[in-house]
Design a protein that fits this description.
The chain is an alpha+beta fold. The chain is built from 13 helices and eight strands.
Length: 329
Amino acid sequence: MKGCVWRHPSRWGGLLLWLLLLPLCCTAETGPGVGNGELSGLSAEDRINLLCLRSAYPQIRAVEAGSDGIWLRLEGERRVLYASAAELAAHPYDDAALLDREQRLARRLDTARMDVSLRASMHLPYLPDPERAATPLGYSPGRWRSYAFLKALYGADAATVRRGLGGTSLQGRKVRMSGAAARALAAVDGRLREAVRQRPELKPWLVSAGGFLWRPIAGEQRLSPHSFGIAIDLSPQRAPYWRWAKVERHPLQQSYDSEIVRAFEAEGFIWGGKWHEYDLMHFEYRPEIMAKARLLRQLEMAGGDGRDGGTAASPHDLSGVVPAGGSNG
């Protein structure tokens, strides 16, 4: 399949089609490498990860297998490494474990290294609301990021990121975010408008404290996702950050209003309240993580986790599973 340039699906429901096609898709120009230049030898979870990345980001034009690993080719012929050949060999995924909820939730990552490969950034399972898992040390899905990918998508410096910003608003307050994130936030605002009308007590929780701001994460040297215009903070006086609160687990991690969280998740945002190093005010546009979360939930609903007595679903055959979801911005 020469060039392997896929068209961007408009809804998460298109994920099923891409999952079925993904093993066949690879640039014909690549030489022998991972799977002899093909992607069909990858694990089901790696194929799901690549599927969700491709569905979430139309800037990704192709997935390429080479002797050094798996690469994403973006607009302008930029390339970002998904995973090196060494990482794929050293940390293979077990397809059976993909469907075992307990094994997925037992995963941990090294808290000393937060700038990781794209593959590692999708390793921890994010559970969409109303589920809220325990958050032991090493479990902060989405807090590990591939900065090479973020810089390729949004810009490697403040000036470049600023050129891609768009204006939107949340509950009447103006917010600047990167284009796709701004459009997704506008959709969130639409979802919450009726909720606030019916439940006015939600409004004090929806006060924007800012979107784009080029800065490091508080207490760290890594750039904040605010630097790329993909994060928004809401009502910090009510929803604290773990360094301020100084408690290992905050009650709001369980009691924060689910209607707010679900509105953001439906449009591709993850919530920092689901991290060990919780950031209760923080919502971050990571549509690939939400796409994977929905897909795995659909597998479980099909009986794939073996707990409900249903016919076990296979991650290689998802013909009966169509992920639900919102706009990808």
